[in-house]
UniProtKB/TrEMBL annotation:
PANTHER family: 6-PHOSPHOGLUCONATE PHOSPHATASE (PTHR46193:SF10)
Name this polypeptide is given: Haloacid dehalogenase
Family designation: Belongs to the HAD-like hydrolase superfamily. CbbY/CbbZ/Gph/YieH family.
Keyword presence, Metal-binding: yes
Source organism, top-level taxon: Bacteria
Alphabetical UniProt keywords: Magnesium, Metal-binding
Protein source organism: Paraglaciecola chathamensis
Length: 233
């Protein structure tokens, strides 16, 4: 088992709230590639480190505001539709679930849902092309449904309320510091997933915002952390 830091004591979990990008689907590399290519046409050159520090796990509205704040560039109205079109094409051709995910979902013994910063169109297409819609629909909640996106707790609390589960009984699985912060702010239990391809080994080092959160690099690790959540143990 490849755990980065100490195991948490998971207590009385009645709902698992999954982030989508970088957790359920191996999409962050595709998202970064398409976004950076379009930004470059506007003269905005973004590094990998900047992308991961400021964009990973955030809503498009946050990205737009950050680009204006740091680069003085207001994205044109055509930018988001162009980006979404490019991303949908990339998802259709290349998107895959994270390794071992479907086996985990097949064995879960508790309800699950999604809480994502992605748009409804984007997450809906991702679920369709990967075959994950059968595991989650209609329990998919997006940042468009709340006032404040991650790292605020709003989206997680919205998901829990709609699923009829108290926050203290929720386990959130996230990959980004913004998501981890949001889960903590919602007073939920949280695990960081670092198994997607964008999480290269050197990037799995403990982040200051997630240093008290257990990190797993493969879905099999969850069986050992909380065997009561699955039907295989």
């Amino acid at each position: 088992m490849d755990l980065v830091n100490t195991m948490p004591e998971l207590k009385d979990i009645k709902l698992i709230i999954f982030d989508c990008d970088g957790v359920l689907i191996d999409s962050e590399g595709l998202s970064k590639r398409e976004l950076l290519a379009l930004l470059k046409t506007l003269g905005v050159n973004i590094t990998d480190d900047y992308f991961e520090a400021h964009f990973l796990g955030h809503s498009f509205e946050h990205v737009t505001a950050k680009i204006y704040q740091d680069f003085g560039v207001a994205l044109p109205d055509t930018f988001r539709p162009e980006y979404q079109k490019a991303l949908i094409a990339a998802f259709t051709a290349e998107l895959q679930p994270t390794l071992g995910l479907k086996d985990l979902l097949d064995s879960l013994a508790v309800p699950r849902c999604i809480a994502t910063s992605s748009s409804p169109t984007r997450v809906g297409h991702a679920m369709k092309v990967t075959g994950l819609d059968q595991y989650f629909a209609p329990h998919i909640f997006t940042a468009s449904q709340v006032k404040n996106g991650k790292p605020a707790p709003d989206l997680f609390l919205h998901a829990a309320k709609n699923m009829g589960v108290d926050a203290k009984h929720c386990l959130v699985i996230e990959d980004s510091p913004a998501g981890v912060q949001g889960a903590k702010a919602a007073n939920m239990q949280v695990i960081r997933y670092a198994g997607a391809s964008h999480m290269e080994p050197w990037r799995r080092a403990i982040d200051p915002l997630t240093d008290d959160v257990t990190t797993i690099s493969q879905w099999q690790d969850l069986y050992a952390l909380a065997p009561e959540l699955t039907t295989t143990y």
